[in-house]
Amino acid sequence: MNVNKYTSSSESKTPLGNDNNQQFAVIDHDGIQGYAETAYLMANPKNAERLLQAIARLKAGEYIDRQLVVK
Prior knowledge:
The chain is α+β, with helices and mostly antiparallel strands and 71 residues long. It has one domain. It is built from 2 helices and 2 strands; from the N terminus they run E-E-H-H. The chain has helices at 29-42, 45-59; strands spanning 15-19, 22-25. Strands 1-2 form a two-stranded antiparallel sheet.
């Protein structure tokens, strides 16, 4: 199946239609991996609390922008 026929990377999470009143979407591999990792991390209450606090700090502008150094 040529997935590009149905979606592009910028639209990869857009619902495409329905089958028997159930919506479906094409999601790229990286996207579904991200959802799986987030679900895994959010399953633990302590991890979930830390992640939500970090997101709140990020949205409030409380972060330091740093360059990644690869050796």
